[in-house]
Amino acid sequence: MRRLFIFAAGIAVLVGLVGLVLTRPKTVDQTQLNGVVPDLSRGETVFYAAGCASCHSAPNATGEEKLVLAGGRRFASDFGTFIAPNISSDPVTGIGSWSALDLANALLHGTGPEGQHYFPAFPYTSYANMSAEDVVSLHAFLGTLPAVPTQSAAHEVGFPFNIRRGLGGWKLLYLKPGWVVQGDLTDQQIQGRYLVEVLGHCAECHTPRNGLGGLKRDLWLTGAPNPSGKGRIPGLTSAQLDWSEADIAEYLKSGFTPDYDSAGGEMVEVIENTSRLTDDDRLAIAAYLKAVPASPTGSPSE
């Protein structure tokens, strides 16, 4: 019996050690960023394409106030309420002391400077495919924005979801770099894929999730329940959105639909961001969306 107990204890320790290794926060190799020169103009484009201000500016901020990234917006979910942190250039309360490598770790692996897992309310599962050039350029652009000495508020997440080490296991399941829509795509569609699947992280709202909060990639962009509990976020697949590519591009620029209706709700802020992209970018997004199949299972989600 004693030998059996010792054996069981040894197995438990071994399993625990393997678990600690598998769930440890991952980081970027510095060599991936070596020699990458930041481009401020590109960094500004990435800033708007990624919608940074839509989450990290203060609640109800408008105009130039949206460049003040003090955080404070609240995002309710089934796992608790997440509060956007200060990502201004303040070196104490913001991310002004972060290196480009620190930002790369956050964007590509959801790992903080102190080696902690970030909650996936920060859409690093989409940003994971971001290029080194865009990371470095975004880092440089963020450094040009105002510093704000506002302390970030703690997330309101209860047990067991507040155990950050457990996020390492979640990442093993759902943090999977790679493209969803593949095949023989045109250069324009590839450009649009990067803007939609990565920078724009459109799937974070327009794709349904499972019980653990992971995106159902087999139902890519087929629509999802609104986290607010009110209504449904529409699907964007070729079977659900019958607008022409020109219609989609115009909507992303002006907010007007082909029926002369206008964007509402959270899409207003999305349009504020996409309106700052180039016409080529908006047309690329449209071309990609027209290439997204109804869903690999054959029909859009209900």
* H/E element sequence: HHHEEHHHHHHEEHHH
Helix content: 25-40%
Shape: globular
Q: Numbering strands along the chain, what is their spatial order in the largest sheet?
A: 1-2
**What count of helical segments does DSSP give?**
12
Strand content: under 5%
Runs with pLDDT <50, length 5+?
12-18, 297-302
Q: What does the radius of gyration come to? A: 21 Å
Terminus-to-terminus distance: 55 Å
| Integer average pLDDT | 89
**How many domains, as an integer?**
2
Summarize the structure.
It comes from Ruegeria atlantica. With 302 residues, this protein is mainly alpha-helical. The chain is 39% helix and 4% strand.
Describe this structure in words.
With 302 residues, this protein is mainly alpha-helical. The chain has two domains: 28-174; 187-291, Cytochrome Bc1 Complex, Chain D, domain 2. Helices cover 39% and strands 4% of the residues. The strands form two sheets. Strands 1-2 form a two-stranded antiparallel sheet. The chain has a two-stranded antiparallel sheet with strand order 3-4. It is globular, with a radius of gyration of 21 Å. The protein starts with a helix and ends in an 11-residue tail after the last helix. Residues 12-18 and 297-302 have low confidence and may be disordered.
